[in-house]
Amino acid sequence: MKRWVSAVVASTAAMAAALTCGAAGGQAGLLPGLLSCPGLTYTQPFTPWSDANSYFLAPGGSFEGPSSWQLSGGARVVAGNEPFDLNSKSDSHSLLLQPGSSATSPAMCMAALSPHMRLVGKASDGSGVHVDVYASGVLGLVRLPVSGDIDLSSSWDASSDASLLLQNVLAVTNLGKTSIVFRFTPIGTATVQIDDVYVDPIFHE
Predict the structure, then answer these.
(1) What does the DSSP 8-state code read for residue 58?
(2) What single-letter DSSP state applies at residue 20?
(3) Cα–Cα–Cα angle for 191, 198, 139, nearest 5°?
């Protein structure tokens, strides 16, 4: 057992070192196959906010067309797009989260990294939205000891950059890749509206 734990720790450390080097390239698609997820399109949507990191749009993260998110407690897709048109100028909808509601993203591939998340949104009291992280597997969703608050303004604006430190050991045991789900809930009694949810999977210091 001790040998197995030592091997996992050593592997995790080696992978973390490789990720740090890979981040210098600035593009997740350039990482080795073990540490990347195929079929993702990367853009730099937050350059107007001096953020040159490369992101992929979370599945259904523009809230256009049939919703692939699980909505509960009164969360719903509403008319009205964020004003910066990060995903497309033809977009016309966003996600409304009233107090006590939640929205759960579809599962997405995530390599053994520490992703950053950023979106466009607003909170009625200028607070933000809380994000919990789950691993998706054959037994359903397993909540990870990872969560974060994404700061929002009271009017539409790019959110803060939320760093979500995933458990690298979990990713290593899944050959470097884990299917991840994000669950969003308003903070306190705020009514929150979000749109264009992006994920940057590259490790940043």
Answers:
(1) P
(2) H
(3) 85
Predicted confidence (pLDDT) per residue in 159-188, tens digit: 998 887 654 445 444 545 578 899 999 999
pTM of the model: 0.78
List the one residue out of 28, 31, 61 whose CA is nearest residue 181: 61
pLDDT tens, position by position, 3-15: 333 333 333 333 3
Q: Would you say 193 and 157 are in contact if contact means Cβ atoms under 8 Å apart? A: no
Rounded-to-integer distance, Cα 9 and Cα 139, Å? 25
User: In this structure, what DSSP letter does residue 161 have?
Assistant: -
Q: What is the C-alpha separation between 69 and 94, in angstroms, rounded?
A: 12
Give the angle subtended at the CA of 161 by the CAs of 156 and 167, to the nearest 5°: 140
Angle at 161 between CA 185 and CA 105, to 5 degrees: 40
Sign of CA dihedral 124, 96, 49, 111: positive
| DSSP string for 60-128 | TTT--SS--SEEETT-EEEE---TT-SS-TT--EEEEE-TT-EEEPPPEEEESS--EEEEEEEETTS-E
Q: CA–CA separation, 152 vs 117, rounded Å?
A: 13
Region label for 80, one of left (φ > 0), alpha (ψ between -120 and 50) or beta (otherwise): left
